[in-house]
Every structure is written in structure tokens, then in C-alpha cells.
Amino acid sequence: MIPKEQTIHQNLSLRPSEVADETFLETVYAETRRGELAVLNWSREQENDFFKMQFHLQNQAYKMQFPDADYLVAVFRAQVTLTGQNGETRYALTNPFGYYRFTDIAAGETYVISVAHKRYRFDSQVLSINENLSEINFIASETLVKNKR
Fold it and tell me: Nearest to residue 5, comparing CAs of 92, 107, 98?
């Protein structure tokens, strides 16, 4: 038996990491590891220098170990559009982590899901909904506007 309503959730809108993301990624790295250094009684500046060094060494190691890997970052405030066979259109915005969610989706239907963002282009996907879906990820295929740095 197919449920009448389904949910599309916990999906990501992603884009390739750029040089302009480095400061943000360093900060995320530092804040997730800061508690480990509490016993050392270092100043905030010493901790930041240490984390910056560790971040860059880890990044280099990853790139050497996985030279063909994609390094991706979530896209915030991308508009996700879900269009049903009957033309009904629903919208969602991605949160700071790239997640979005649609609820109360009719099962057994086919939908087109697309993502729009002012800086990135994404390819649309066609989905046949028969169960709750997750891991429907969109990866930016092209940067429309380059960061000025």
C-alpha cells in the first residue's frame, strides 16, 4: 500500500568549495575542535593559530590522499521548486546548512525539482515519489558570478 502523502527532506544544495570559503571553513574547523584545547590554557590567538595550521595541513593531506575528490560547501538561501504533473508548484529555501524540506507530497506522482540561486546553476531532477525521500542532493554545475577578491 502506498501512503497518500510523503515527505522530501534532509536534502542538500551543494557547490564546489572556493578560495573565498577558506576563512569560513577554518572557523568551522576551529569551533568544532576548540574544546579539545581547554586543558592547555592557551590564549584565543594561540588556539586560532594552531587550528589554522592544523586545518591547512589536514586540507593538504586530504588533497594528496584523495586528488580526485570533490570538496563541496552547502548553498544557503537557494530556492528549491517542486512542480507536480498538474502544474502545482511549491517552494522552499535552503537553510544555512543547505537543507530544505517539502511535506504532504502526493505519492505515486512524478515531480520536477529544481534549484535556483543568484550565484550558482543547478540541473533539475525528475522524481517519482513512492516513499519518503532523502539524499536528493543538488551540486552546482557552474558558478554564475565569481567572488571578487
Answer: 107
C-beta of residue 54 within 8 angstroms of C-beta of residue 29: yes
Secondary structure (DSSP) of 87-134: --EEEEE--TTSEEEEEEEETTEEEEEEEE-SSEE---EEEEESS-B-
- Taking the C-alpha atoms of residue 148 and residue 54, their distance in angstroms, rounded to an integer, is 27
Domain range annotation of the chain:
5-16+72-143, 19-65
Q: What is the pLDDT of residue 61?
A: 94
Q: Does domain 5-16+72-143 have CATH number 2.60.40.10?
A: yes
Cell of residue 105, nine digits = 507530497
| 3-state secondary structure (DSSP) of residue 14 | strand
pLDDT, mean over the chain: 82
- The model's pTM is 0.61
